[in-house]
Amino acid sequence: MREWWIHVGLICVPLVAVYLHIPPPQLSPALQKWHNAGQVFHFRGSKIFYRESYGALGSSDVVILLHGFPTSSYDWNKIWDPLTQRFHRVIALDFLGFGFSDKPRPHRYSIFEQASLVEALAAHLGLSNQRVNLVSHDYGDTVALELLYRSDHNRTGHLTLNSLCLSNGGLFPETHHPRLLQRLLKDWSLLAPVLMRLTNFMVFQRGIGEVFGPYTQPTDADFWDMWTGLRYNDGNLILDSVLQYINQRLKHRDRWVGALTSTFIPLHMIYGPLDPVNPHPQFIRLYQRQVQRSTVTILDEHISHYPQLEDPTGFLNAYFNFIHSF
Fold it and tell me: Mean pLDDT over residues 76-89, rounded?
């Protein structure tokens, strides 16, 4: 009996070792095309991926797209071409720790650093003195609020904002419901290193699938592209550090919600009401009560946390109506 357990152990140990070091998947042709169309600039010693397209002739309008957690700039792929038909320049980046950007570890990831990264990219692209429009989602919403705060307080290096469109972000800690794995990782529990190593494609697919609507689920190829972006540069091993943004939202609530409620910059919220992370109607009622200057678009009842992917046409119609309203 004792020898049997020894044999099992000898077999299992290398199997587990191999499992925990599974190499990241190869880029799909679509993701490779997105990567090839992008560029890199350096920010505080790290390489940051961004993509820029020049579009509408006769327009000087610029839009910068800020993605959510745990995905990347590729979240905007379904609305990229229509945006280039409306704007002169369309820009998206992968935040530090996301997508094709560097993912240093150990590192103290923060919303403040990501906002400075966006400002540095704007300066790199010669946009420091130009009015820009921001479109953000989820994690990107909080980065946008820090940029809004800096703009309204005339901080050195700030962006000059023309408008801000938010979507399905956890703006209010009191109505934000992170997923179980996020809660475990954000508190840096003793389980965090193990959980990050054990998170595989099936766990990821199930977790992401839960924040999409039942009729708007990603395809298998979409799931793999999201997972590939996360695994790129070992991004799965820094999730606990990146997730500190949830704690930062609580700590800096007055600063960021205050910026939202006091600004005179045109604001719009595009909201998928089936979102389990920012549930309906609690989230949108609080938003409308707190941010009375903002206009709101509530998409169809089956749209959830990723409206730009689940309903790109509805998202674009809402955004263009907003842009044309001022």
Answer: 97
Q: Are 141 and 176 in contact (CB under 8 A)?
A: no
CA dist., res. 256 & res. 97, Å (int): 22
pLDDT tens figures, 136-156? 999 999 999 999 999 999 998
Residue located via tokens 């695994």: 231
Beta partners for residue 135, in sequence order: 65, 165
Residue 292 in tokens: 């009375």
3-state SS class at 298? strand
pTM as predicted: 0.94
Give the 3-state DSSP-derived string for 39-71, with helices as H, strands as E and coil as C: EEEEECCEEEEEEEEECCCCCCCEEEEECCCCC
CA–CA distance, 111 with 217 (Å, rounded to integer)? 29
Cis before 193? omega within 30: no
Neighbouring residues of 70: CB distance < 8 A, sequence distance ≥ 6:
98, 226, 230, 235, 239, 242
Q: Strand order of the sheet with strand 89-93? A: 39-43, 46-54, 89-93, 62-66, 131-136, 160-167, 267-271, 295-298
How far from 121 is each of 95, 104, 214, 287, CA to CA, in Å?
A: 11, 19, 37, 30
- For residue 129, what are its two tokens? 């003195």
Label residue 314 exposed, middle or buried (CB < 10 Å: 0-12, 13-18, 19+).
Answer: middle
Residue in the block written with tokens 């399905």:
168
Q: In angstroms, rounded to a whole number, what is the distance separating the alpha carbons of residues 25 and 40?
A: 22
The total of other beta-carbon atoms located within 10 Å of residue 44's CB is 12
Domain architecture of the chain: domains with CATH:
29-324 (3.40.50.1820)
32-59 pLDDT, tens digit each: 999 999 999 999 999 999 999 998 777 8
Tokens, residue 65: 């797209």
